[in-house]
Each structure stands twice: as C-alpha cells, then as structure tokens.
C-alpha cells in the first residue's frame, strides 16, 4: 500500500483516491504518525500531502524525521515538497501569496517520475513558499518561470518533491505522475481492484467472525445494505438483519428494502416497529446533536430489546455497521486537529455494548461501496439510491420533530424524487432530498390567505460527501417540482432551492 501523510490538506483524500483508482491500496495517516507505526503498515511508498501551513512558521506540522530513514520512496507534494527541502538541509523562502493557479512547467529530466510527459506541461501550481536551495544529493527536475526548483529528486534515495498538485484534474498529466511514482518508483502491485476487494472483504469477515452470529442494522441507505450483503455472503443465516422503523424513514422505504432482502435470501430478517419509542423521545427536542444522540442510543436499546426478546436463542457476538471511510475521518476518528463537525450516527454508539463491532466497509469511499455492491449484484435502483443518513428525516426537519412535520416532509420528498426520476435527472445527482424549515410563511391559494411551512430542496454533486457543489437542476424542472409540491402536499406554500456549497454548508440540515 501507499501511505499518505496528511498535513491538513483537503486534497489528501484526493491523493488517496487517485492512488486507489490506479488499483493500489492507499491509506491516509496523520502527519505525526511515528515512523515505526508507518513502517508497520508495510508501505511501498509514502506521499506527503500539501497543507495550509508554511514550513517557515513556528509550530507548523512536521513528520517524524525518521521517515526519511525507512528506505521507502517518498513523494512530497506542495507543502510536503517544501518540508522535504527544509528537513533534509535545503532552504525555503517565503512566498508573497498562497494562491493556486495554472503554470507551465519546464521539465529537465523525465525518468522515472516524469516518464511519458512532454518537455512542457500544464500543472496546477501552488504559489506559496518555495525551495531556494536544494538539499545535498538532490537535483532539479523541473522549473517554472518564477520557481527554479518546482520539482527535485534524489534518485539514489528515491525522494521526490513537486510543488504542483498532481492529484487535481487541472494538472493535465497529474495521474501519469502519480502512476510513475506508484508503479515506476515504488514498484507497487495492483491490489485494489474492486472484484478482489469484495472477495477479500468477504474472506476477512469469515475469518473475523468465525462461528459467531452477527447483528446488522439496516437503515435504508446504500452503506448498510452493502455491508449486510457482504456479511450475508460470508456467513449466510448467521446474519440477523434488523430493520428498525424509527418513524424517520422515507415514504415506502420499509416495504421496498424488506422486499429486496427477502427476495435475496436473508432468512433472519427482523422488522421492528419502534416508531412510538423514537418519536416519543424526540418530542420537544430541537437541538441537532441531542437528536442524533437520542436516536443513536435508542437504536442500541431497541437492538438490545430485540435480542432479549427475539434473538435470545442465538449467541450474537458482533454488531455490524455500515461505517465508511469519510464517516471516520469527519468524526475525527483519524487525523489530528480535524474539527468535529457532526457526531455521525454510526459512531455515537455507546462503547459498553457487550458486542464487538464489525465494520466491513470502513475503509471504502462511497463510490467504492457502490462498485462493491455492483459486484455483489445488488439491484441498480437500490444501489444508486442516494445516500440516506442513519438519523433519517430527523436531520431534515430543522428543530422539533412532530408527526405533522414528518408527514409533510415525507410527501414533499416523495414528489421531489419522483419528478427527478421522471425527468432523468435523479442519477445525475449525488444526493437530493427535501428538508422542512420550521417557519410558517404567508401565501395565497385560490382567494384565501395561507400560512404554511417552507420546504427547502437540496441536490448536490459530490464524489464522497466530503465536499459538494449544488446541482444545477434545469429551471423548468425546478418550477414543475415546486408547483407539484405546493399543489399536492398540504401544509406547504413555498419551495426554496438551496444553492450552498459544502463547505461552508453541510449537505444535511443538522
Ligand atoms: P453532511 O451533512 O455531514 O453529510 O455534509 C455528508 C454525508 O453524510 C450523510 N450523513 C450521515 N450518514 N449517519 C449517516 O449514516 C449520519 O449521522 C449522517 N449525517 C450525515 C449525509 O446524508 C451526506 O450523504
């Protein structure tokens, strides 16, 4: 595998993704991971990511200096490039701005990092600090008009630094540079081919679980469904799938998912109607984190009760979850200094469960989850259904949840999604849903004044939910959706379209 040390760059994910797309496992580790821990992962190469800091600032993030003694090839990108220059005895001088932009890179040598590239390449460049004197043993391999050491190398020790970003698409042959590093320099073997990944995941589950029984909570989202299917393939009827209706599901969701599971041979399927319990506990609660905590804890309680009542006769050792890689990163489970943004439902579970936790897809990005699902022959419609969060509609009703608000939101969301599907727009969107804003506004219908709720429509384009852009739904379709919602859903007299990116907004409303 390739280890990416994260110096606080958003692009660290992109680097890992690009490496995985080349067919090689990549793992992101915090920048200060001790060299011995890095070595225990057996990487064939290290990549030092970019980052917002300056190596010239006091206290800026530095890696364990022993990484340079591990004997594995290292590629420093942007901040990582400057770090390498500074830490190995060269010099770095401050830049005037920290902007990014297109630059023409003049290549001095081609092999091995720049194999197959032209003598001049368009790259996405970071105009920050720059290396002004090379460390001993290094040679210059590329420059730009204003940056003499835009790329350098110590071919003997297989250390490379590039000031530009090969991971972004603006760098025309960036993938080729990463490919050259991963295969040409590091000699990595392809091990991240999705069919093999699925097979390995199933084998790993079988090994880990042994003869035990596993409980999995199905939430209606793609992640839990893929996780459940993997486990089902691994251990068959020792998997107990519990689908809790917490009263926060979308319209028709329970029926659709349970029909699929039955059809696909899930024999131990337990459908639990816990709507009253959940909604009772959520009454009067409007704080987002409080809602998430209540839902997370109630889930466990409902599971435990189900075990006591229905599943007592089996010895259930594991609780399986559909946690994916971005969930872990965002909940600051990895990555130093990453701020806690939201406590994800999947991670608010109390520790003293009495279960071991099984998270078969915890290292996968969302699109990888879908590709694994396709290998497992999950039906297209379920697989390509937009992600749905564990806490369900609770985080799409801003503030207090009431039965009336739930019913309005469910209907509005169903109209929205149906119209997107009919127009062929649904599968162009990464995630779309309606949210209910807890304000009432004035409208007029017929001759009468109305005073009703506002529905916000969200549709975003994203790769993995970490960042997102608002999706440009054609205006005519937006208009149709708006008039259908107001016309068909009682209790709504205004529809807004959310045009905020993530960041600064999040995708969900709470
Ligand atoms: P945010 O709102 O954090 O959402 O920008 C990013 C992605 O994560 C989903 N999400 C969740 N999924 N449990 C989940 O399983 C949660 O608690 C949770 N909160 C957000 C969200 O739907 C989006 O796809």
Bin the helical content.
25-40%
CATH superfamily of the largest domain: HUPs
Oligomer: single chain
> How widely separated are the two ends?
36 Å
Proportion of residues in extended strands: 15-25%
**Biggest beta-sheet profile:** 9 strands, mixed
Q: Give the integer mean of the pLDDT values.
A: 91
Number of contiguous helices: 14
Strand order of the largest sheet: 2-1-3-4-11-10-9-6-7
* Gyration radius, rounded: 26 Å
Structural class: alpha/beta
Level-1 CATH class name of the largest domain: Alpha Beta
- Shape estimate: globular
**What is the CATH architecture term of the largest domain?**
3-Layer(aba) Sandwich
> How many domains would you count in the coordinates?
3
The CATH topology of the largest domain is Rossmann fold
- The low-confidence parts are 332-341, 345-350
Explain this structure to me?
The longest helix is centred in the middle third of the chain and has 22 residues, at 288-309. This protein is α/β, with parallel strands linked by helices and 510 residues long. The chain has three domains: 2-185, Rossmann fold; 194-383, HUPs (Rossmann fold); 396-497, GMP Synthetase, Chain A, domain 3 (2-Layer Sandwich), CATH 3.30.300.10. Mean pLDDT is 91; it is low at 332-341 and 345-350. The strands form four sheets. It has a nine-stranded mixed sheet, sandwiched between helices. The chain has a five-stranded parallel sheet with strand order 14-13-12-15-16, with helices on both faces. A hairpin with a 7-residue loop joins strand 9 and strand 10 (151-154). It is globular and about 75 Å long. Helix 5 crosses helix 6 and helix 6 (222-235) crosses helix 11 (366-375). It has 14 helices and 20 strands. Bound molecules: xanthosine-5'-monophosphate. Xanthosine-5'-monophosphate (XMP) binds at residues 342, 344-346, 387, 389-391, 431, 465, 502, 506-508.
């Amino acid at each position: 595998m390739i280890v990416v040390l994260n110096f606080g760059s958003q692009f660290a994910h992109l680097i890992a993704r690009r490496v995985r797309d080349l067919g090689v496992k990549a793992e992101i580790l915090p920048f200060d991971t001790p060299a011995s821990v890095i070595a225990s992962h057996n990487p064939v190469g290290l990549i030092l990511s970019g980052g917002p800091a300056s190596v010239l600032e006091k206290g800026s993030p530095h890696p364990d200096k022993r990484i340079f003694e591990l004997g594995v090839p290292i590629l420093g990108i942007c901040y990582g490039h400057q770090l390498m220059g500074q830490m190995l005895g060269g010099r770095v001088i401050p830049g005037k701005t920290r902007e990014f932009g297109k630059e023409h890179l003049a290549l001095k040598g081609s092999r091995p990092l720049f194999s197959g590239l032209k003598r001049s390449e368009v790259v996405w460049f970071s105009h920050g600090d720059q290396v002004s004197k090379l460390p001993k043993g290094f040679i210059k391999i590329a420059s730009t008009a204003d940056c003499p050491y835009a790329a350098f190398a110590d071919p003997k020790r297989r250390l490379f630094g590039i000031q530009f970003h090969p991971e972004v698409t603006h760098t025309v042959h960036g993938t080729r540079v990463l490919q050259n590093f991963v295969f040409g320099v590091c000699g990595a073997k392809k091990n991240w081919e999705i069919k093999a990944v699925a097979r390995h995941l199933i084998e790993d589950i079988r090994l880990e679980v042994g003869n035990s029984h596993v409980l999995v909570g199905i939430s209606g989202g793609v992640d839990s469904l893929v996780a459940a299917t993997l486990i089902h393939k691994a251990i068959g009827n020792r998997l107990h799938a519990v689908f809790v209706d917490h009263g926060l599901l979308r319209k028709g969701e329970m029926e659709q998912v349970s029909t699929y599971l039955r059809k696909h041979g899930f024999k131990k399927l337990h459908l639990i109607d816990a709507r009253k319990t959940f909604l009772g506990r959520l009454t009067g609660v409007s704080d987002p984190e409080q809602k998430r905590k209540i839902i997370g804890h109630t889930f466990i309680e409902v599971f435990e009760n189900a075990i006591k009542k229905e599943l007592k006769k089996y010895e259930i050792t594991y609780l399986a979850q559909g946690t994916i890689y971005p969930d872990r990163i965002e909940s600051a489970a990895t990555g130093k200094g990453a701020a806690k943004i939201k406590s994800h439902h999947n991670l608010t579970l109390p520790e003293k469960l009495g279960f071991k936790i099984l998270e078969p897809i915890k290292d996968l990005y969302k699109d990888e989850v879908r590709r694994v699902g396709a290998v497992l022959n999950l039906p297209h419609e379920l697989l390509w259904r937009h992600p749905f969060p564990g806490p369900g509609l609770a985080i799409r009703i801003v503030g207090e949840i009431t039965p009336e608000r739930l019913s309005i939101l469910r209907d509005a969301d169903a109209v929205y999604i149906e119209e997107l599907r009919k127009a062929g727009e649904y599968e162009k969107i990464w995630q779309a849903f309606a949210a209910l804003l807890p304000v009432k506004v004035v409208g007029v219908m017929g001759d009468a004044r109305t005073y009703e709720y506002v529905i916000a429509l969200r549709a975003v384009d994203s790769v993995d939910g970490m960042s997102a852009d608002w999706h440009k739904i054609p205006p005519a379709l937006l208009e149709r959706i708006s008039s259908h919602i107001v016309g068909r859903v009682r209790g709504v007299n205004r529809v807004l379209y959310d045009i905020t990116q993530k960041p600064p907004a999040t995708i969900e409303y709470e």
